[in-house]
Design brief:
Shape: elongated
Helix content: over 70%
Order of helices and strands: HHHHHEEEEEHHHEHHEH
Structural class: alpha/beta
Number of strands: 7
């Protein structure tokens, strides 16, 4: 028993010394399990995960070998030195094995992790490529309407640009034509101004034409509602007003056109304000001279149907307004001279009033015609009514005479004629019918 105690102590020491080894192995196993879990989670490589149980089996096998070794050491009756030496050798071998297993495990884990990482990257790239292709396809579908719209917009822009170039060319031609037309109008206007300034007869013709245009624009007709260039003889010679406007009551309005252009045109062309005022004063005096000359013709004495004034037509609002700016009493002065100043604006009002009066006169004339026709129609209807009543009386008398004849025919003729059939005289079965009595009398209404 005493000899067995050292062996038990050795065995107990061996067990105590092996506990750290077992704890280290367990720690390695725990670390191995954690690494295995991380590899399985990160790499998702199931094939490599299956190798870990094999490693566990190897560790378990070495553990069993360690147990057998300890058992052999317990059963071995060698000396303490040999057992210690063998134990140390086993410990060193276990350490070497542990180091080898650790290195192998680290290498295997690194390879597994690297492979799993490569597979993960490859799968990720494949998924990214697939997603990219799908995204490109979806984006292509989404952008297709935009592409179509852009193509249509581009076509519209090209068409608009072509149209713009065409229209620009046409516009350029029109502008050129307009410029030429303006130049022509300017030249003609200059010619007209020169003609009006230098030729008094041309000014008179122009004023007469403006007067005729105003009257015709108001609905008056020449030779019907108004006449031009009517001449009369007087003590002062032959007078010829520019127009005579007829009024429905038999009266007339005498209109004479007067154009004062030279001084006004000089004022319009003047740059210096003082000169401009001088020209405008001369223009006002020219208008005043026309008023005096027209008043001296006494048209109201030559035309008995005319009122005791004459209308002086000035073919332009600006002509009269410029004169009134210089002489505010010009209107009253003309009225005192029995001259009414008229521009196209107020002459239009006068002419339209005359046209309206003529229309009212036509309406009144037609109303009188309608009244005369109604009176004549009523008289004729009265005559027809008398004839109709006479005819009704004749019809009534005819009916009465007819009924008397029928009564006499039935009472005197038919009675005797029917006796022939009673005597069996051949009558060919012809029966004499009684004639009808007329009870309808003509409708006669009393004349109220």
């Amino acid at each position: 028993m005493t000899a067995f105690l050292p062996f038990l102590a050795f065995l107990f020491g061996l067990i105590i010394a092996g506990l750290p080894l077992l704890w280290y192995i367990r720690q390695q196993k725990t670390a191995l399990d954690g690494l295995q879990a991380r590899v399985l989670e990160g790499a998702k490589a199931e094939e490599q995960a299956r190798r870990i149980p094999a490693l566990e089996q190897a560790v378990e096998s070495w553990r069993e070998k360690a147990s057998l070794l300890m058992a052999e050491q317990a059963a071995n009756k060698r000396g303490e030195e040999e057992r210690e030496k063998a134990y140390r050798q086993q410990i060193e071998q276990l350490k070497a094995t542990e180091d080898a297993l650790s290195q192998k495990f680290d290498s295997l884990a690194a390879k597994t992790l690297e492979k799993a990482h490569g597979q993960f990257l490859e799968q990720a790239q494949m998924r990214f490529a697939k997603s990219e292709r799908e995204g490109e396809a979806k984006l292509e579908l989404l952008l297709q309407p935009v592409k179509d719209s852009l193509k249509r917009y581009e076509a519209s822009v090209k068409e608009a640009e072509q149209l713009r170039q065409t229209e620009y060319g046409s516009l350029t031609a029109l502008v050129s034509t307009m410029r030429e037309g303006q130049e022509a109008v300017k030249n003609e206007a200059n010619k007209l101004v020169n003609a009006l300034r230098t030729a008094p007869k041309a000014r008179g013709c122009w004023g007469e034409q403006q007067l005729r245009n105003v009257l015709e624009s108001c609905g008056l007709s020449e030779y019907v509602d108004f006449e031009t260039e009517v001449s009369v003889n007087s003590e002062k010679g032959r007078l010829r007003p520019d127009a005579i406007i007829r009024i429905p009551n038999g009266s007339i309005l005498v209109v004479d056109s007067k154009v004062s252009l030279n001084a006004y045109q000089d004022a319009y062309d003047a740059v210096d304000e003082d000169k401009r005022q001088l020209y405008l004063q001369a223009h006002s005096k020219a208008i005043k001279a026309h008023i005096d000359g027209l008043s001296q013709k006494n048209y109201w004495d030559q035309f008995k149907e005319a009122p005791d004034y004459v209308i002086m037509f000035i073919p332009g609002e600006h002509f009269l307004s410029a004169a009134l700016e210089q002489d505010h009493n010009l209107w009253e002065y003309a009225f005192q001279k029995r001259v009414l100043l008229a521009t196209p604006t107020n002459l239009i009002a006068i002419a339209r009033t005359v046209a309206a009066v003529w229309r009212q006169e036509d309406i009144a004339h037609n109303a009188r015609k309608i009244g005369e026709l109604g009176k004549e129609l009523y008289e004729r209807i009265a005559k027809v009514d008398a004839h109709m009543r006479a005819l009704g009386n004749s019809l009534e008398n005819s009916v009465k005479n007819y009924n008397k004849f029928v009564g006499s025919f039935e009472s005197r003729v038919l009675v005797t004629a029917r006796k022939f059939r009673e005597l069996n005289i051949e009558t060919k079965e012809q029966e004499i019918k009684e004639p009808p009595i007329l009870e309808i009398t003509p409708r006669m209404e009393d004349k109220e």
